[in-house]
Amino acid sequence: MAPNKRAGYKLATYQTKEGPRAGLIVGEDVFDAAKITGKTAYATVAGILADWKAADGALKKAAVGAAKSRAKRQPLRKTKLLAPVPLPSTIFCAGANYADHAAAMARKSGQPVPPDPHEQGLKPWFFIKAARTIADPGATIKVGDYAKELDWEIELAAVIGRPAKNVPQEKALAYVAGYMVANDLSARDRGRRPGVEATSFFKMDWTKHKSFDGSCPIGPWLVPASDIADPQQLALKLWVNGTLKQDSNSGKMLFTLAEQIAQLSINMTLHPGDLILTGTPSGTGAESGEFLKSGDVVKIWIEGIGEFENRIV
Questions:
Q1: What would be the CATH architecture of the domain defined by 91-312?
Q2: Chain centroid offset of residue 224 CA
Q3: What ranges in the chain are assigned the alpha helix state H?
Q4: Distance (Å, rounded) from C-alpha 22 to C-alpha 51?
Q5: Which residues contact 161 (CB under 8 A, 6 or more apart)?
Q6: Sign of the four-CA dihedral 268, 272, 274, 278
Q7: CA-based, 20 to 30 A from 71: which of 5, 105, 115, 165?
Q8: Residue of 255, 53, 235, 271 lying closest to 169 (CA atoms)
Q9: Centroid of chain to Cα 111
Q10: β-strand 81-82 against 140-141: which pairing, if any?
Q11: Buried (b) or exposed (e) across 179-189, using 16+ Cβ within 10 A?
Q12: How far apart are CA 108 and CA 288, in angstroms?
């Protein structure tokens, strides 16, 4: 996993003898974020996000001086990276938010390609994954016999860096601390409640479908928002056992990240550490009828952010 060379630093959570710590990645080195900045509250990514307005500047300053710093460093290649935000306060997930995915699912069901939702006056809609479903980059995800139709979904994840309430769309991106790569693993065969008619209003079971242990791998690090010129112009790719399955661009989102933040912040305050998974493009297993099997390795990559893989058992 090579960091993006364009940015001054990456923010990670990594394993140490003292337990998980916030790490500042500069080039191929990892520094303890609290020790290199001299701020004890920065020992965790949660502590950094809670002070993001000041923390971003402090971390950038530390990154500039990292080469001459006397702070202890360790090679990135020998560092065990954990989920950058190990326990987010809330994980919001955008539903059906890519034009290519919506078109592919419509074709599969014999339906016409749906129109742009803006033309229908529709707004972004979401479901929530449980915070404890987070999985580390590189982790083995143990699903067992829970799902026979386990699907992959690469997604751009945005991390909120300051409280956001009733945020106008044109200012929404200013509330983003940074970006990560995420996989919204989905148990397709758990999405319907057994014994409930398909025509029932109460047929769906979003909890069993979307929230199970390990169903939200994120990582490999957080890239500061200031290093991503446009979150709507990023290539996304996902491979299963080396075969490319998803190959798209965030420009195909139906509702932009700014629209999503504005919509979410109408009825609630978004808080530092909240995650927004912005939807998945075409190429999912649900479109082809192919699903993950024990031993499969899923690799995900987003331009300008990074890549990681997980093995499914």
A1: Alpha-Beta Complex (3.90)
A2: 14
A3: 33-37, 45-50, 52-64, 99-108, 206-210, 257-267, 285-288
A4: 14
A5: 49, 52, 53, 56, 175, 176, 177, 178, 225, 272
A6: positive
A7: 5
A8: 255
A9: 30
A10: unpaired
A11: bbbbbbbbbbe
A12: 8
Place of tokens 């057994």: 194
* Torsion sign over Cα 67, 69, 70, 76: negative
Q: CB–CB of 156/178 below 8 Å?
A: no
Domains of the chain: which residue ranges?
A: 10-82, 91-312
pLDDT (tens digit, 0 to 9) for every residue of the chain, 313 residues total?
444 444 489 999 999 999 999 999 999 999 999 999 999 999 999 999 999 999 999 999 999 999 999 999 999 999 999 999 999 999 999 999 999 998 898 888 888 888 999 999 999 999 999 999 999 999 999 999 999 999 999 999 999 999 999 999 999 999 999 999 999 999 999 999 999 998 998 999 999 999 999 999 999 999 999 999 999 999 999 999 999 999 999 999 999 999 999 999 999 999 999 999 999 999 999 999 999 999 999 999 999 999 999 999 9
Nearest to 218 by CA among 88, 125, 124: 88
pTM: 0.95
Query: Any idea which residue has 């074709």 for tokens?
Result: 107
